[in-house]
Amino acid sequence: MISCSRQTFFSLMLPLMAASGALYADDGVPVLLQFAERYHQQGAQEMPANKQQPTQIPVQKPTVKVSQVREPATNQRQQLMAVHKTLREKEAQLERQQAAIQSLQQELTALRVASTLTAPNTAPSRQDFTALSEFARSVRQALNLTPTERQAQVLIAEAHKTMGELQVQLAQLQDKNRKQAKQLEDNGLQLAAALEENAKSAQQFEQVSKRASEAEQERVAGNQVEKRLRKEIDDLRSRATLLPDKLALTKPQEQQSYAAGVALGRDIQTLLAERKTWGIDPDKTTLLGGMIDTFNGHYQLSEAVLASALAESEKTVNAGRTKAAKDQQAKGESFVSEFRKKKGVKKSSAGFWYRVDYLGDEAIAETSLVDIVVKEMLTDGRVIQDMDRSGKVLSQPLSAYPPLFREAIGYLRNHGSLTMVVPPELAYGEAGYAPQIPPNATMVYELRVVDADKG
């Protein structure tokens, strides 16, 4: 019976022995006691290390200020990390202890079954159950939280609360910061608009000031001109007695004298216009004053000054005329050089260059009466005469035309047209034709035969 019970006991304990071979490292000690002793030793080794960890967490509630949001938040995070680490270690320890308890419960069940089967022969030792009770008590203590851990939980709750408050305050500060940034942006835009408006106002003020300054200068210049004109008017009024009355020009002798004066005046105007093309523009009023003073016999300058001024005037006139002649010579040569390159341009026997624009239809006889229109121009395109535009037609026998134009007409038929470029020596020469044609001017003519009879 006893052997059967032992066999039954061993049959129940063999699985436990196979599952936990390390329990038999020390023979002579009950298996359950060995396990409880080892677990108690392991718990004694682990618990102090685990209990010392929470003591590193400060118990006092941290004081948080809004002005120091970042630094307290960092400290709280460090404390929370330490507490979480301690809790994770506790959780791992509890998991290990729960696994051990489950294993012990299985072994305890097996022992109870075994003790039931072997009750008549074997009495369980009280020491074994006492050790098991001690182990269970240590397990219950391990499952309970220590004061330090409770403080840690309270600290965690307070830290979470503080973090929530700090997050609310941070959100408020961020919102306030965004509003301030928006306000700064609006202020910047307003300032830029104000600066732009101020710049425009300053520019307008500068323009107005400039116009006012120019107006003042014009006013001063106008006053000077007005004074000069008043003086000239006074001088003219004092000399008006020398001018003839219109009603007095009734006698032939008076009319002839007046006509001679007009002719002289026209010659003077032509002379002045010619000199103006040379860059010399005398004052007409002063010139007229000199003429009147000459007839009056009362000069406003001495003879020496008059002689010197006249010499300087002639010198200036000659220099201007020479320069104008050279300029026209250069312009003419350049124009001829370009004209010669055009298609169909030929040189006449007389020496001018021409291009037939339209040959015409019927031949013109030597005895024909030829009607032509001519457009006379300078090389710069300035028109001197345009018979076609003015509606004038020159009609005469071909033999009556000047040699230059008679040769040009000879290159055409009836209704034909050509363009001819005439050098100065074949046109107006060094003298030119004042006031429109300068000296040494190369002339351009567009000639068209309006009609020619058969002779």
Automatic annotation (TrEMBL):
It comes from Serratia plymuthica. It comes from the Bacteria. The keyword Metal-binding does not apply. Residues 1-25 form the signal peptide. GO terms for molecular function: peptidyl-prolyl cis-trans isomerase activity. Residues 367-453 form the PPIase FKBP-type domain. This is peptidylprolyl isomerase. The lineage of its organism: Bacteria, Pseudomonadati, Pseudomonadota, Gammaproteobacteria, Enterobacterales. The keyword Isomerase applies. Residues 77-114, 156-218 form a coiled coil. It catalyses: [protein]-peptidylproline (omega=180) = [protein]-peptidylproline (omega=0). GO terms for biological process: protein folding. Keywords: Coiled coil, Isomerase, Rotamase, Signal. Its EC number is 5.2.1.8.
